[in-house]
Amino acid sequence: MVLRMTARKSFATFTFSADVTIRDDRFGIFGVSGSGKSTLVGMLAGLLEPDTGEIMLDDDCLFSSAKRINLRPEQRRVAIVFQQHCLFPHLSVMNNLLYGFKRCPPEHRSIDFDTLVSVLKLEGLLGRGVTNLSGGEKQRVALGRAILANPRLLLMDEPMSALDDALRFQIIPYLKSVSEQFRIPYLFISHSLVEMRLMAEQVLVMSGGAVVEQTSTDQLARSRMGHSPVGYINLLRLSRPRLDNGLFSYAWGAGELLISAGSDQQEAIFELSSKDIILCKMHPEAISARNLLKCSVVSTFESGNKVGVELASGEGRLVAEVVPQAVEELRIAAGSELYAAIKASAFRRIG
Amino acid sequence: MPLNYDARQSMITLSPTDFDAIRLSVQVAIAATLLSLPFGLAVAYLITFVKFRGKLLLEVVVNLPLTMPPVVVGYLLLLLLGKHGWLGSLLSAAGIRLIFTLKAAVIASALVGFPLLVRSLRTGMEAIDPQLINASRTLGARWYDTLFTVILPLSVPGLVAGSSLMFARSLGEFGATIIVAGNIPGVTQTIPLAIYEYASSPTSGDMALSLCLVSVALSIVVLFLHEMMAKKMARRD
Q1: In whole angstroms, what is the distance from residue A274 CA to residue A260 CA?
Q2: Fewer CB within 10 Å, N or C, chain A?
């Protein structure tokens, strides 16, 4: 998918302006609330008209002020998964799912209803009304409804922000697998960097109504490390746990990681803050931290008044943060060898 | 109208003319409500969802009968629909006479009750989450498709509440009706007009009271229905 957008629109309190080209099927739009993300979504979907500009999706013009083109929302085939599920309260789960499908011209219908229902695990819910579903179920139905409309672009507008933490990361595999399985390009809009990194590799950063940066999600996380109270969040996808004296042991890098908050699930995602990694020049004889990993330094980078240290252990990569004085004392540079000490309780399971 | 109890023995005494008045009242109220519904829906939709110039003017015009004396509404209607009126002369050329018929009573009631209907419908429509409408549009529905599949179904509580209020108001319509439809027993004489006639005669106090009781009972039933719907509407979010 290639999305080209130049647009300006003035509001009472701020001006929205964007001039971007997106060439990736999974792309993120990142920014705090009020930065213009929802305005961008509205313009792409045809719910909001730019004052001037042009929006091209592949070879089709969705909007052009010069050519006086403004396709109506129903002509664009751009579906939205909203922040609030926005399911039709008077329709059953089944009829909600089929709402867009029935209105999609037959030549564009490529998604099989039964396959989608089974991917989203909605089999038992079809005959029910939508008001008594749980938050996660509602969002899964909303996702299914958008996919079944056979859109050529799916806008996920903070689809997890109304869900609590536990549910939030349960829905991510659905969002990803559905879009991948049915080959629907998406823009993932969020103000959460962790969600963003799980959903997209490239990202547009918005601030004050304008696109200020186009970068990779990992680069964005690194540049924000020094300014964020939680540092850089390492995301570790670990599998096949083994129980070891009450802790969960997962193979990682050249060795293994011992984690208190593990689970019996075959695969899990863990967060580990760059602040929770202690670096030692030499092997400490005895230490309470359960993980002591021999690593080599891949690179270092500055962020705010901190220095990020990218560590490698086998195939595994971790980012730790230290203050500049520590870099000097430990003589940390690319290629140097270090020990990283991590407490078993420092890992947080998010999915 | 057949009676399955001896009305003359009971507290409420109703003559055949009274039964005619009740029947006519209900007929007028139902017809006026049904006649107003499509217009009410259109106006409520325009005011709630469509941006256009002169919206304020439309709101004022729609609400005018609420504040104007019904007699004034009736008199203006008489000027419009009378034999020499702007519309009346056209209609009489086509062989249609409205003044002093039940049709005129229906039109008078429809006009006077219209603002109440529109208000309830608007409250119902304004309670619909705009994102639901956006969702429907992005899922491929045209505006009229959205109107019939999302807006109207979600407006049902407002529609029932508005219709019941309008029905109740029409049952009691007096001022405009007496001017355009007259007070002809069995033809245009509704409950309020019959009560007025009884009240004007010194010997018919009991008869007036009986019809008053019928009128109160009808209003209570309709308003109960209205309140139930209003509560249902408030609960939905």
Answers
A1: 18
A2: N
Residues of A in contact with B132 (CB under 8 A): 86, 88
Give the whole-angstrom CA distance, residue A258 versus residue A250.
7
Is the pLDDT at A127 greater than 70, yes or no?
yes
A14 contact B CB<8A: no
Beta strands per DSSP E along A208-290: 210-216, 233-239, 242-244, 247-252, 255-259, 267-273, 277-280
Tell me how many residue pairs between chain A and chain B have CB atoms under 8 A apart: 61
Range of the domain at B226: 16-235
Q: If you average pLDDT over residues A3-14, what whole number do you get? A: 94
User: Which of A37-46, A168-177, B155-164 is least confident?
Assistant: A168-177
Nearest by CB to residue B154, choosing from A86, A90, A100, is A90
Confirm whether pTM is higher than 0.80.
yes
CATH number at residue B202: 1.10.3720.10
> Cα torsion for B137, B140, B144, B146, to the nearest 10°?
-50
Q: What pairs with residue A247 in β-bridges?
A: A244
* CATH (residue range A3-227): 3.40.50.300
For residue B7, being part of any structural domain is answered with no
- Cα A325 to Cα A102: distance, rounded to the nearest angstrom: 64
Alpha helices in B127-155 (DSSP H): 130-138, 143-146, 152-154
- B155 interfaces chain A, CB cutoff of 8 Å: no
B129/chain A closest Cα distance in angstroms = 8
Number of structural domains (chain B) is 1
Which of B131, B140, B153 is nearest residue A103 as measured by Cβ atoms? Answer: B140
Name beta bridge partners: A54: A6, A64
Domain boundaries, chain A: 3-227, 233-349
**B139·A149 Cβ contact <8 A:** yes
* Token couple for A334: 């690319």
Q: Is there a domain that residue B90 lies in?
A: yes
Q: Which of A82, A99, A145 lies closest to B131 in CB terms?
A: A82
- Provide the pairing of β-strand A78-81 with A153-157: parallel
Higher pLDDT among residues A108 and B235, named by residue: A108
Report if residue B11 sits inside a domain: no
- Say if residues A117 and A124 touch (Cβ distance below 8 Å): no
Strands (E) located in B83-148: none
- The correct answer on CATH 2.40.50.100 for the domain covering A233-349 is yes
